[in-house]
Automatic annotation (TrEMBL):
The lineage of its organism: Bacteria, Pseudomonadati, Pseudomonadota, Betaproteobacteria, Neisseriales. InterPro entries: TPR-like_helical_dom_sf, TPR_rpt. Transmembrane segments: none annotated. It comes from the Bacteria. Residues 1-43 are annotated as: Disordered. It holds the Pfam family TPR_16. It comes from Silvimonas terrae. This is Tetratricopeptide (TPR) repeat protein. Gene3D superfamilies: Tetratricopeptide repeat domain (1.25.40.10). PANTHER family: CELL DIVISION CYCLE 16,23,27 (PTHR12558), CELL DIVISION CYCLE PROTEIN 27 HOMOLOG (PTHR12558:SF13). Residues 11-40 have a biased composition (Low complexity). SMART domains: TPR.
Length: 571
């Protein structure tokens, strides 16, 4: 019934009338035929005039004159009082986009077949489309009365009848009216809850969801919608509610999945993983649990499990899991499976395509294939200034990856000569200059960058770190870094810079505190090396070597990792 209410046939290509759909199974088809029976047909003589009008109606449609055809068929319906003609007139008017004419033809169809369901469905759909909800009410009530067995499923989906132009208050009133005789059904209370929530009557919506739960304790739709209505509540409160609901309905995988999602939001990732894995023991191909378990395992750096479950999710539903392919590429890259990573990145489509391409570019560079990376960068012509800047930055990063800093410098310099006030290019070139140990050049570019963006925390941090790391101008570095920290507090990159400056100033307790917080928030190899150096200098050599070993695993080729590793030696 809902399908009939929610959809109306659309015109086919070329202005032709819609064609009938293929018949369903015999028993379903017979039941539908009985429900849509036209009843007694009029004994109308087929005169020459009527034949001519029928021909005009069809020929006008074939010649791309749908409005004329709709008007002709509507006139035929009035003349014949035949439900078959009225049905055809309704279809043609809908295809022609003549809403008022379609409603008039549908009304004639109802008058000609008062006991049939199909014309009521079509009329209801047309009235809903026209936002004439008061007029839709009797048709909706008639449909529910004719098929009371469909009322529960209809109420569960009733909210799908409204579109963005529907008067939500009128929809809530209509929902109240049509559900009034059915308040013994939890689905009726669910329909009311959604209608009230759509008019910002959240307390009323909560009452209706609770009423549905009282009629059917632990009922999934009520539980899951109740959680949505708690969106402004603390995440732990939602977790507790779902745990309670799961005790009432322990076999509900939907509630268990919802609980796992809330645990992730509440940063209880290990508990979330237990829930997802519990679902997979019961239903090994549960798509949401496969995705959830895979992503949580990835966060916990269990790459084998992450790869296994995300790959299974993609195999199960390739059309809906496109975004997972980039994660599978990253996992394969981390595990040294470069060919698999390349294949995954190349298979990403849609919104994630550009991000996957950038990962592929970096993978080519990291694996010693810079030419392939450069070719991929320039595969598409950069038409706008923004696109040209993006390509230049990517090309610089490729040459930086293979430690060809002179090439990276030249690429950036050529671009800056054409666009001397491009802040992004100046910032990137300052990083290359720093890697070349060319402090004056790095400092000059960062000053130009800050002239363009005076209160940019990133630029202030870069200048402060360069001075702290490459010079003994610690007071000057401190000014830039303190200002950056004020602008962007708790940023682990800035905390690392300040921590390293404190190390250089021999303020070791402060350095350890800052670097520990930075490393916890961002397990970066350079941050780890800075923390290891600080711990070693404080005499905590065992902890220093442990952190250093972690940093070396993350990136053994990092300049700071190599230098500090040589300084503190092996355990």
């Amino acid at each position: 019934m809902l399908a009939g209410c929610a959809t109306v046939g659309q015109p086919a290509a070329g202005g032709k009338a819609p064609t009938a759909s293929a018949p369903a199974a015999d028993d379903a088809s017979a039941a539908q035929d009985a429900a849509n029976a036209d009843g007694p047909l009029p004994n109308e003589e087929l005169t020459d005039e009527l034949v001519l009008r029928f021909l005009v109606g069809d020929i006008a449609l074939q010649r791309g004159q749908p409005t004329l055809s709709a008007q002709t068929w509507n006139d035929l319906a009035r003349r014949t009082h035949d439900p078959r003609v009225a049905k055809r007139a309704t279809e043609v008017a809908i295809g022609a986009g003549q809403l008022n004419l379609a409603m008039d033809s549908a009304n004639q169809w109802i008058n000609a077949s008062p006991n049939a369901i199909a014309p009521q469905q079509v009329m209801l759909s047309l009235l809903l489309r026209a936002n004439r909800l008061d007029e839709a009410k009797p048709h909706l009530e008639a449909l529910l009365k004719s098929k009371p067995q469909d009322a529960p499923s209809f109420f569960l989906r009733m909210h799908t009848l409204w579109d963005k132009n529907t008067d939500r208050n009128a929809a809530a009133k209509l929902t109240e009216d049509v559900t009034a005789p059915y308040l013994n059904l939890p689905e009726a209370h669910f329909a009311r809850a959604v209608a009230y929530a759509n008019t910002n009557r959240v307390p009323d919506a909560v009452k209706e969801v609770d009423a549905a739960d009282a009629l059917r304790p632990g009922w999934e739709p009520a539980v899951l919608y109740r959680v949505q209505l708690m969106s402004d509540r603390p995440s732990q409160e939602r977790v507790d509610f779902l745990r309670s609901a799961l005790r009432k309905n322990p076999d509900s995988l939907a509630i268990r999945n919802a609980l796992a999602r809330e645990l992730v939001i509440n940063k209880q990732v290990k508990d979330a993983l237990d829930e997802y894995n519990g679902i997979l023991k019961i239903q090994p191909d549960n798509l949401e649990a496969l995705v959830g378990s895979g992503l949580v395992s990835l966060e916990l750096r269990d790459f084998e499990t992450a790869q296994l479950h995300l790959n299974a999710a993609v195999q199960k539903s390739p059309r809906t899991t496109n975004n997972l392919r980039i994660y599978l590429g990253q996992i394969a890259e981390i595990r040294g499976q470069n060919q698999d990573a390349i294949a995954w990145y190349q298979s990403v489509e849609g919104d994630m395509h550009d991000a996957a391409t950038e990962r592929l570019i970096r993978l080519y560079a990291h694996s010693g294939q810079p030419e392939k990376a450069i070719d991929l960068i320039h595969e598409n012509v950069a038409l706008t200034t923004e696109q040209q800047t993006r390509q230049t930055l990517l090309e610089s990063q490729v040459w930086r990856e293979v430690k060809n800093y002179d090439k990276a410098w030249q690429v950036l310099t050529d671009a800056i000569n054409k666009d001397p006030k491009n802040a992004d290019l100046l910032y990137e070139r300052s990083l290359i200059a720093d890697l070349q140990h060319n402090v004056p050049a790095a400092e000059a570019d960062l000053h130009k960058y800050l002239e363009l963006q005076p209160d940019n925390a990133q630029g202030l941090n870069a200048l402060g770190y360069t001075l702290a790391n490459r010079t003994d101008r610690f007071d000057e570095a401190n000014g830039y870094l303190e200002k950056a920290n004020t602008l962007d507090p708790n940023n682990p990159v800035i905390m690392d810079s300040l921590g390293w400056l404190r190390y250089k100033q021999n303020r070791l307790a402060e350095a350890r505190d800052l670097l520990t917080r930075a490393y916890k928030a961002m397990p970066d190899p350079e941050v780890g090396a800075h923390l290891a150096a600080t711990l070693y200098k404080m005499g905590e050599k065992s902890d220093a070597h442990k952190v250093m070993a972690e940093a070396q695993k993350l990136d053994p080729d990092n300049e700071s990792v190599i230098a500090i590793g040589q300084e503190i030696g092996k355990p």
